[in-house]
Amino acid sequence: MSREEQQQLLDDDAEPADDDGCYPPRRDSIPWQPNPHRQLPIYTTIHRIRRLVIACIDDPYSLDQLKSPRMNTAVVRPLLDHLYDPDDVSVVWCLLVNRVQFLRQQSFQAHHQTVNVTRANLCEVLASRILRRFDEDHSGREGLLALANVLVSGFEPFQNAPPSVDRGKRAHSALAEGWFQSGRERVLTALEVAIISESKSFLAASACQKIVDAVYRGRVIYTPTAFIDILPDRYKNRRISLYDPRKAPILNQYRLIVPRNRKVIEIAQFLLLFVLYLLTMFNKATEIGPGHLQFTTVEFIFCIYGSGWVLEELASVLEHGWSVHTENLWAFMDIAFSLIYLAYFGVRMHGLRINSGPVGKQALDILSLGAPILMPRLAFCLMPENMLFIALRTMMGDFTFLTVVTVWCFGGFLLAMRWLSESQDGYASHSFLTISKWMLWIWFGLDGTGISKSVEFHSFLGPMLMVLFAFIGNTLFLTILVSILSNTYSNLAKNATAEIQFRRAVLTFEGVKSDTLFAYRPPFNVAALVILLPIKFLTTPRWFHKVNVTAVRVLNAPLLLIIAIYERKYLWQRNSKLGRPRRRHAFLDFWESFGAHADLGNVFDEEPPQSVLDEMDDIDDVFGNDVWANGYMNTIRQRRGSRQISETSSAYPVFRNRRSRGDSLLPAETW
Question: Which parts of the chain span the membrane according to its record (predicted)?
Fold first, then answer.
């Protein structure tokens, strides 16, 4: 999208703006706007898509086979023409919901496993094609809003279901309709469903990435939904709209939940936590008296700030649920450090309560375990799109799973050698810990002490068990581990672009927060929880909203001012750091106009005149007897009013060449 196109999206003085600088503006003063898509038959569409997909796919196919020309003609294109409705923005969401169901069924229906995977892949392919058609058929400001409504509009699976449908099977219905959701339904967006179903091909599509980038930068704004709000403030909601910083207030507290702004803020917060952690460990508390351990000022500041940081991590887990949060690249590191901090804090407070120096020293020893987590976490934070870190995160899961399986399988060797080491009176010459240490050394090939000591268990059975363990563990299991990790890395490297864009989508979706707690920086979020939560019970939603907005703007005034100044200048401009070309200077265009190949680009600078368009239609009418070409030209004529003819007609020779080769192509109209 060029700079001129971006400015054109907002340069419309005929449209008034509301207090948030949004387009479209609110039509009235009602703080909570009703769902604009509440009339869509979501329940019916979900089951209609499921019936069509099951009827079309009876045999397993790979993803490449589904994208082949023949499958595209016989299955994908007819379904696409049948399901696409420019007035229904819920079709993509319903397709992704069916993908989740097919993937869930493949885990417990082994005889239909590959078929269900194929059906799930077909749902993803159809969702990508329909989203692309939405992008092609809509342009300008309305097109960007239409595409955003497809991806970030919230829907509920039982919407407009018949009264006879049993809704009691919803797992979180009681929670979703309770206090944490302020009595409103728990809805999901297509972007969230794509993330939990790992629809990486869908998320890597250009149309999807256009909206992901717009949401990430704050050009498209909306009111997100949350699984659980710790400090909810839902007095107002913002419909899906374009944000114009020139018409918005200077101190706009909603800009604190923009993913790009949140990313910068979270990096700064983590750097501050890391610095306080280093200062605390380099200036450890010392003994100042018998049995007493000094509590330094740096450690006190670290405890206060760390408590706020852990509270924000807990709120992040509750915001979109465990499955979405753990898709974040560094989520497992944050969770691990939070557990270490909670253990340290509990032991440290217990040591202060009983005035025990050894207990306080034990707490600092626990805290030292955070160093192996915080150091790589800094690298993950600064290079989130590095393929090495993306692969490392996935490989850690495979390594953990295989390690658990290995410990489980080799537990029998440990018990056998422990029982062999017992004497006749029941006394064991070697403990479980000692035998486990010897087995671990043999497994990783560090030392063979266990083999030499195995004769102490039994003169024959001891060495036999230890050599058998060395053969199976060191040779077989380690070889399997290396093979699995190598295969995982090769698969990720082969789809590096899709993996990077998937992580970018996860970071964007998780960055849009609805909980008011995220508007307060640690450790002020702890104070906000203690002070504002009781106020919420004592005041009306309107007054609580006013108190909350005032507190957020006062505490974040310098930050909001910097964001407002930056966005007024750079929000709707292209970013050359993301691989997009810089704006060319006039003298460079003038210089290249003398090049030998300048005409190759100049011929596309302007649209053909109407006389040329009419001539092209006359030429294409020669193929009127061809059923496929006739149907395709009808599609061109239908879309001419909403998109440029040059964009569509460029694909026509592809279908003409397929027809000339004798391929069996069925028209979409005959399906």
Answer: 264-282, 329-347, 399-420, 464-485, 524-544, 550-567
Contacting residues for 330 by C-beta, under 8 A, at least 6 apart = 377, 380, 381, 384, 393
Share of the chain above pLDDT 70, in %: 76
Q: Which helix (H) or strand (E) is 221 found in, with range?
A: strand 220-221
What is the Cα–Cα distance from 519 to 252, expressed in whole angstroms? 11
Model confidence at 23, pLDDT cuts 50, 70, 90, reads low
Q: What is the CA radius of gyration of the chain?
A: 31
- Would you give the DSSP letter of residue 170? -
Continuous segment of H or E residues that includes residue 220:
strand 220-221
Compute the distance between CA of residue 466 and CA of residue 416 in angstroms, rounded to an integer. Answer: 10
Q: 384-401 pLDDT, tens per residue?
A: 777 888 888 788 888 888
Q: Is 95 buried (19+), middle (13-18) or exposed (0-12) by CB count in 10 A?
A: buried
Q: How far is the CA of 104 from the CAs of 40, 225, 541, in angstroms? A: 26, 24, 40
- Between CA 93 and CA 151 the distance in angstroms is 8
Q: What is the DSSP string of 17-75?
A: --TT-EESPPSSS-SSPPPTTTTS-HHHHHHHHHHHHHHH--S---HHHHTSHHHIIII
User: Can you count the helices (H) and strands (E) in the chain?
Assistant: 33, 5
Handedness of CA 130, 136, 137, 143 (dihedral sign): positive
Please provide residue 471's backbone torsions phi and psi, each rounded to the nearest 5 degrees: -65, -45
Sequence-separated (6 or more) residues with CB below 8 Å from residue 108: none
Strands (E), 348-448: none
Pairing of strands 287-289, 220-221: unpaired
pLDDT (0 to 100) of residue 411:
85
CA–CA gap between residue 66 and residue 569 (Å, rounded)? 45
Contact 660, 654 (CB under 8 A): no
Q: What's the pLDDT tens digit per position in 605-628?
A: 677 788 877 777 777 665 444 444
Contact 633, 620 (CB under 8 A): yes
The SS3 call for residue 355 is: coil
Residue 92 to residue 288: CA distance in whole angstroms: 66
The DSSP result for 543-587, as a single string, is: HHHHHHHHHHHHHTHHHHHHHHHHHHHHTTS--GGGTPPPPPPHH
pLDDT tens per residue across span 629-663: 455 555 555 554 444 433 333 333 333 343 333 44
Q: For helices 478-494 and 496-511, give the axis angle rounded to 10 degrees.
A: 80
Which of these ranges, 533-542, 584-593, 643-652, has the smallest mean pLDDT?
Answer: 643-652
Look at 382-386, 466-470, 522-526, 570-574 and tell me which has the smallest mean pLDDT. 570-574
For residue 449, what are the CA distances in angstroms to 163, 422, 471, 472, 473? 71, 19, 15, 17, 16
Residues 23 and 15 sit within 8 Å (Cβ to Cβ):
yes
Q: Is the predicted pLDDT of residue 129 greater than 90, yes or no? A: yes
Residue with tokens 């749902």: 123
Domain boundaries, the chain: 3-26+60-160+168-258+512-570, 259-382, 388-506, 610-670
Q: How confident is the model at residue 422, as a pLDDT?
A: 77
CA angle 384, 385, 387 (to 5 degrees): 115
- Residues 488, 491: Cα–Cα separation, whole Å: 5
Question: Measured between alpha carbons, how far is residue 98 from residues 86, 184, 190, 391 in Å?
Answer: 20, 24, 12, 28
pLDDT tens-place string over residues 99-127: 999 988 887 765 556 788 999 999 999 99
